[in-house]
Design brief:
Order of helices and strands: EEEEEHEHEHEHHEHEHEHHEHHHHHHH
Radius of gyration: 23 Å
CATH superfamily of the largest domain: NADP-dependent oxidoreductase domain
Amino acid sequence: MLYRTVPKTGDSLSVLGFGCMRYPSKNGSIDEERTIRQIRHAIDAGVNYFDTAPVYHLGKSEPTLAKALQDGYRDKVKIATKLPHWSVRERADMDRILAKQLATLQTDHIDYYLLHSLAKESWEKLVRLGVLEFLDAAKAAGKIRNVGFSFHSNLETFKQIVDAYNWQFCQIQYNLLDEHNQAGTAGLRYAAEKKLAVMVMEPLRGGSLAGHVPEAVQKIYEESPVKRSPAEWALRWVWDHPEVTVVLSGMNNEAHIDENIRIAGSALPLSLSPDDRALIDRAKATFGQLMKVGCTGCGYCMPCPAGVDIPGCFALYNAHHLFPKDKSPRFQYIGHHGGLLNKPSNAGLCRACGKCEKACPQHLPIPRLLKEVKGDMEGMMGIIVPVLRGGLWCMNAASRVRSYFSRGGTP
């Protein structure tokens, strides 16, 4: 495992951080046993930075992390968690939230404490309510060791926030497709010039840059004499920037964890060759041409008052266009969102209330995009779903009849 240094404190942090936003699930909730096993395996392999938040997994991420860090593991890691600005109405709320987090995480201090998902309005609100005084007091009391913020807005606002306080670190979204979005490369370099450690979230764009990438992108990667998975290309691109301190990965699969740990053992800054960078530039351009919606699947837009599974609809919409020869995204859309197998959660349910758009860190025009999803993905769904549902009912009824007679029943 490689480590990079926090400029203002000298802390040595693993270049790979464990994002606690996407734990493995089982029966609709966190698979706690598997999650704890994964976290401890990562720590044993050298990962020492764990990023959570009160909102992750509907409040269950922090307590699950606390359980994983029992038996001496807490002393081996740095915990990062966040102050949710949407839960703050007055100064006292900040102290109350922090006290609850300390109790939930079963620790007497937070190593890296962030103001969560800042944009211009949320930053100004927190300053008005006394957040800077709160951070000073919490640090003086030893409850917080390092102070930072996570960010989802424009470069101008990012610079204003960086310059407003003696931060130790910040957290930005940064990946192949977001080189010039939000804080972007300019923000990364600006923060580094101010001696802030920079933690990178969404390095794989919610998984869009890993796994089964579009055929056109895969062909580009295969041209390289050095054989790497799409995930490795994307991660190495981020780690190639010397300004980056930690790259967070929402790892929830054992094979992916081991792959990331392996890559993190050799991904030195400025280690990509000119040929590597040229190849990645071509892959970036191809991705940009194929991607329909810049959704990362973060879930901040949820729950939808109308019942739309917004990230789920966007994921299948993107998959439909990224893999045009694959018919399964449309069938999955009908099955998962059209009401065939579950309660309807399709884009057509959108009432354009705007709640999602206000919450979206990417500032996507979600209601408008959902209209596009509806037009492209739903088509004859209103006719197909009732027919298929009727077919399923007949199949289930026939199965029940066969079962009845197999047990000796009579007409």
